[in-house]
Amino acid sequence: MVFSSMVFLCIFLPMVFVLHLLLPGIRAKNAILLTASLLFYAYGEPVYVLLLLGSSLMNYACAYVICRCPVYKKVFMALAVIGNLGVLVIFKYTGFLVETVNMISGASVSVPDIRMPIGISFFTFQEMSYVIDVYRGVTAAQKNYAKVLLYISFFPQLIAGPIVKYHDVEKEIDRRTQTMEGICSGIRRFIAGLCKKVLIANTMGLAADTLFQAPQAQINAAGAWLGAISYMLQIYFDFSGYSDMAIGLGWMFGFHFKENFNYPYISGSIREFWRRWHISLSGWFREYLYIPLGGNREGKTRTVINKILVFLCTGIWHGAAVNFVFWGIYHGCFLMIEEYILAIHKPGGRIRSIFQHVYVLLAVCVGFVFFRADTMSQGILWVKEMFTGFNRNAAAMSLALQQLTPVYLVTLAAAVIASFPVNKKLKVKRGYEPVAYILSLVGFVLCMFSLAGGTYNPFIYFRF
Description:
- The protein has helices spanning about 5-20, 25-45, 50-70, 75-105, 120-135, 145-155, 155-160, 165-175, 180-210, 220-255, 270-275, 280-295, 300-320, 320-340, 350-370, 375-390, 395-400, 405-420, 420-425, 430-450.
- It is mostly helical.
């Protein structure tokens, strides 16, 4: 089940919200949320809900032993890390590893057909953070398995993040209140995310998919740039939209998740971009991998190596394919360059700032071409067309122009404006609140019409 579906919007969410509101006592409220979360996951993954239960039980047990028997804490910490990574390797990377071995060795080992559980990367990283934090003494092990399972499986952040740390919601699992202000703000935040996903990301995604799935001969510079920019906007508004919906749902039920996106396309460096993009993931890698590797404490060369290793892992986390690995290394290399050439991100005047923004947008756009491409070969050919494909191929130009419908152009303008923190400036204006609620209602109606019509509505996190 996904947030942008009629089943979720018209049946699941209203029923769970009303029951949570009416049931007395925190135990009953937690019980309905836990039951609903497991049903939410089982709706799309009826078998893999057992994997979720088994994985969470393993991490609960390891954390409990670490806390209760310090003499064995290193052993159980290692078991938890190996177990979590083992689950990821088996269900997400087995096919990729077999294909790689076949390609290098010339063998013909059959590639196993293992369907990846939705959201496995998200809930596995949450489980690992819980056990590591218990090992470090950041938080105490939870005695009640149901509370750990609720933390791991809570449906707002289960399949698309943000990655939540246990100590950030521990108190709210035991004590929380639903206020009218929080509920109204949560509903509005959820609708804002839904509009990002349904009205902007889906429109941009339809154009991107049409172009990326076209024969290479029908792509010239115009089509390549249009496809790249469309996907760049699709993935931002899709991903940040889901994060907004998760945060809004959390507010509705009395939970408060941290922000996951902070207008990354206004960044003046790749380093700043990663402080603003998918904040929960970059924060996870910084805290649980970059700092343990030594961070920036052991000289510039070691710092650069650590960053490249972190972004290699970031690429691998996103998907089991060579182009994801390349995408991670690609961003790591830009961070290496910025580490040695400080002038790239050094604050300056207006002209310098413009060049820095153009540099970031260009680097990120090209990187997302490889992220979206089905193969490395397609990514390379696509980038080549972006910078050298200035031919007058009539079919290629016609395909590009076909995407520039009035709906696309209006959505493109809205996407560009929404990529900047315009909303933050408008919040201080008189009359903002009533206008915002009216626009939310209009946006929700438009989303419902779009979803009821069965229009293009992909779920792009199946690879994560």
